[in-house]
Request: fold
Amino acid sequence: MAHRWKNTLTRADATPLAAYMNRRQIMAGAMGLGLMGAAGMARAQEAEELVPSAWEDITQYNNFYEFGTGKGDPARNAHTLTTEPWTVVIDGLVDNPGDYSMEQIMDAMTFEERIYRFRCVEAWSMVIPWNGFELADLLTLAGVQEGGKYVAFETALRPDEMPGVRFPTLDWPYVEGLRMDEAMHPLTIMATGIYDKTIPNQNGAPMRLVVPWKYGFKSIKSIVRITVTEDEPPTSWNKANGREYGFYSNVNPEVDHPRWSQASERVVGGGLFSKRQPTLMFNGYEDEVASLYAGMDLRANY
Amino acid sequence: MLADRINQVARKVPTWAVYIVSLIPVPVLLYMAQTGGLGREPIGALEHKLGEIALQLVIVGLCISPLRRFAGVNLIRFRRAVGVLAFIYVLLHLLVWAVLDVQTLDRVIADVIKRPYITIGMAAFVLMVPLALTSNNMSVRWLGPVWRRLHLLTYPIAILASVHFIWLSKGFQLEPLVYLSVILGLLALRVPALVKKVAA
Reply:
């Protein structure tokens, strides 16, 4: 399932949201339409090994410093975040800049489920069944102009609703960015759901980025602004500690974080005696994304 | 007077009671780790809790002599127990890190060498070993004045431990900075010039 990203569906195939939200129906539908060949079957089988983490692990073990630095803080504190109504500003080098309401975005996008590995820079991981749409579709809707080389993102900053931002743990608001080819890559999605349910606030409601081959902190949560820029945008963790958190932040078992090894990871939910498992290059998405970095020194561009 | 009342009560408390009470968190934390009370990922949480308690005990230990000097509260009888307990918690913290978290000896060694925050944490532990080993009456008699000087190692240990905490925290966080400030404050009370000022 995780590799089912070669999107054969377009907005023209738009089916009712409920149908998209059910992975079994999508599988059945796709196979019935003959869209899935032998290769697709093989991929689906291979991907069966990805067992999604428990809902409780996904929603109760979070890094979302706007709600506190403890892993349980976001689940405890994020209920105060108002996610309706929600507006995302899309600006910069786009043809159609403006305020986009969540309803507007949801109506225009094609939703599907993506079961992705999720690897935190702190060397823990999960497998998450996201529901969402490709960022490329949203950028296409906004109309990226010729000079647009990067995409910058910004998280909501609401001191009344986010207890964590009352202390300068990071330079708020949280900002992140991608190079345009990374942003346009079909693996890169905007998630609005998990396990076919509306994404909980602690996981980045109402809409967050998911870039599965990069460390989790690149996948910015509760997005209020998307700006297409010519220059590489600043990113929060790079500003806080550039030596440890580079712009690219691709999952790479060969390049250690200065304070810990990245060669292995622990799957959250295994309990007190869980074994570490080896970390995969680009978090297991090497075939799909390695070409984006051809010719680049991944030690210098970490 | 309050100090006298505390001293009276403290005289009746046996030191073994301090050990028992202070070690209660160990089984409680293990039980919580097994039953989800420490969150969805118990290894890191357990490691952190044990380290935090160790640091708190180091601070309690550093409070004992200023309490006597400036407030007349005499808890010196318990200082050894507090120190030994701090060592026990550091040892447990280290074991959880090495056995449950890092899991293999080569990775433990690599981390100690390559990661400065682990190096200083390990340095703090190594400095604690001679203190723990000499925490008995025989050593005190045998070492004489050397014992007192040896146990001044508590000061660098406290600083290393709090820097270890600051260093491992991501971003600019308040809690580890509070620990360092408290420790530096307690050490400042031992600077002779300051002692005179506060006492006067």
Remarks:
- The radius of gyration of chain B is 18 Å.
- Chain B has a mean pLDDT of 94.
